[in-house]
Write a structure and sequence with these properties.
Layout: H1 2-36, H2 54-62, H3 70-78, E1 81-85, E2 88-91, H4 97-101, H5 132-142, H6 148-153, H7 155-170, E3 175-177, H8 178-195, H9 201-204, H10 211-225, H11 230-242, H12 249-267, H13 281-287, H14 298-329, H15 331-344, H16 352-355, H17 359-370, E4 382-383, E5 389-391, E6 395-397, E7 402-404, H18 407-410, H19 414-417, H20 437-450, H21 464-481, E8 482-486, E9 500-505, H22 506-509
Parallel strand pairs: 2-7
Antiparallel strand pairs: 1-2, 3-9, 4-7, 5-6, 8-9
Helix pairs in contact: 7-8, 7-21, 8-14, 12-13, 12-14, 14-15, 14-17, 14-21
Cofactor: heme
Organism: Aspergillus avenaceus
Family: Belongs to the cytochrome P450 family.
Amino acid sequence: MAAKEAWDALSQSLGVPGLTGIAIVAFTIYLVIHSHTAGLDHIPGPFLARYTNLHAWLYAQWYWGTNVCYLRRLHGEYGDVVRVGPRRVSVSNPDAIQTIYGMKASLNKSELIRAAQPLGKGPDNLFSVRDSKVHGRMRRAVANAYSVSTIVQYEPRIDDTLDALFKVLQNESPETNIGKWVHYYVYDVAGNMTYAQPLGYLEQKCDAVGLIKQTKMLHRYINCTMPMPILHDIASFVVRLVKAHSYTIFHLLTKQKVQERLQQANAGDEGKSETTFKPDILAHFVASREKYPDWMTEEQIITHCMVNVVAGVGTSTTSINNVLKYLVAHPAAQETLYQELQRANVSCPVSWRQTQGLPFLEGLVREGVRLRDASSFNPNGRNVGPEGLILPGDVYLPPGTVVGIKPSVASVQVRTFGEQPYEFCPERWCRREGETEGDYVARRTKMDAGDMSFSAGTRGCIGRGIAIMQIYKLVATLVSQYKLLPATRNDHPESHYEFFCILQPRESVQ
């Protein structure tokens, strides 16, 4: 009672302005103490970032959709190690990749990944789970679906989707939004490989199950909440409070597919399925239930299937479109690739085996992936363990620090990729004239180790092999059939998933 009377007296004497001033002063003192107790005063960085994560949030929103990586700018100003938050550090030195992401480090994902967790209440997935040990067990349960020997079995499904894509292109006007069709192709490949059935994007020529709209909203949401994960916690609380459900068309479709496949497996009819001669990812998930019953429940299989479709679409689409844009802008590179395809006497569609003997194609794809969109906020944060962490250069990070290397920062390091790392140069991946075999192997090893396009270490993208296969096959087949020319229209879509060009059939060129 006395405390209440004292508070009432203080409120009356100070008024709202006075209480507001006290709150501001108290909060400022908290920020200062929070900053200095982090033990990162020896790390350079922007003044505001030393005291609040609002700095990262503001820049993430400011540069959203601009293909500008503000962390590159910070490293250019402050060096290899930059303090980007009260307890966050960004690193650009490629020698630190193994230190942070290697198996020996085994660092857990940071709180930043909370933004990718399901709103409200739902199971974690391979991307959002934070504990490295839990991730290891979860990954083992699905690993067979992504093994090298298994991925090759999915190729007929990619070929079917390529056939559907080229039928669409044959009926399109020469000047077309190839970026849109690439986007539809990638979605249908993902659906075909996951559920043994395309999602209908190429057939219906539209956002068949609403995934494009949903994914755009998801990317915008993650970019808004990842720099300040408390925003995701607030959103989750609201969703739980109003008991909102996020059962989209895609979720209902996935649930139906999984339940049908589980019923077939329980009835012993799985052997009669089309997956016998054209395996799909869902079949592998269902088969792993017996060995991993605790990790492959129906709900978890649904989650794995949905993530499998959504997670890789953006990377594959922007990578393919990047390659195609550079091919249009660099006619000599396009002609070099075409001649390489001609010498190899490739089929249509080009087979995965044929692509493995095409070094210039590899260089084109690696450059397209390396130089794709850099604006999203995803610093690949990891939590420093109780022993602390020593970065190359003897830079010590105390326990509790969030440390990471953003892929778009690692992708432009001169010490990894040589001179002019911002330039599109497929030849950098090929053996140079006069270069010895030993020198080439050493240079390629350094580039491969420093390329974080699919993340790195134990948390690297499990679907990398699938993404690479569908990218290689599409780029090679498209260039073998069409010459890509600049569009005549002047509008330039801001979306990374749209790109206009003229497709001139090769038979009319020759």
